[in-house]
From TrEMBL:
It comes from Paramagnetospirillum magneticum (strain ATCC 700264 / AMB-1). Residues 1-20 are annotated as: Disordered. Residues 29-95, 126-186 form the DUF2249 domain. This is DUF2249 domain-containing protein. Pfam families: DUF2249 (PF10006).
Length: 193
């Protein structure tokens, strides 16, 4: 996934926004402890937002999908993307780029390991970047075990996973093609013929 432009440019239809790779490097602002203490985190979030320049990102950990906050920040020019990490733990990424709610039409699922999956024209995609081992391997293997006949699986990884090929071979799969980009190694997986 090449990181390009702003305002949603370069995003793949149905997949995570291109700017997400920038946001993955940012430490999250965890508002859950404030909420547990009965403190409204809105002022703290707005203070953090005030320091973000165009093209910058903010990552917030919350106990739920903060839809009202997302609408408020969209009105201030932020695109947003969120995912549920666990019960009571959402991570929402904001990018100051003119404001586009990427998720409005997306059909993305998050697996038990935290990997995002979605469908595009070239197959079923899975993003395992930023997962700690062995979760990338577990998520990929879980996905291929449920894949239909003739299904192509496209893996988005931080690096080429050397231990994946033998596991795939045991299951009748192979790495058909690899594409290496700055923040993304893509592997196209297919069943052996």
């Amino acid at each position: 996934m090449a990181v390009e432009g702003v305002s949603g440019e370069g995003k793949e239809a149905g997949g995570p926004p291109e700017w997400l790779s920038l946001a993955l490097e940012s430490p999250p602002m965890d508002v859950r402890p404030l909420l547990v203490q009965g403190v409204d985190p809105f002022a703290a979030v707005m203070e953090a937002v005030a320091g973000i320049e165009f093209g910058g990102v903010l990552v917030i950990d919350a106990p739920f999908n903060p839809s009202p906050l997302r609408r408020i920040l969209a009105a201030r020019g932020f695109s947003s993307y969120g995912r549920k990490l666990n019960e009571g733990h959402w991570r929402v990424f904001f990018h100051l780029d003119g404001g586009e709610d990427w998720e409005s039409g997306a059909e993305v699922e998050v697996g038990p390991e935290g990997a995002m999956t979605w469908r595009e024209e070239d197959g079923l995609h899975i993003d395992v970047r930023k997962l700690t081992p062995p979760n990338p391997m577990l998520a990929i293997l879980r996905l291929i075990e449920g894949a239909g006949p003739g299904e192509i699986v496209v893996v988005h990884h931080e690096r080429e996973p050397h231990f994946l090929a033998p596991e795939l071979a045991e299951r009748g799969w192979r790495i058909a093609r690899v594409s290496t980009e700055v923040v993304n190694v893509r592997l196209w997986l297919e069943r052996e013929s």
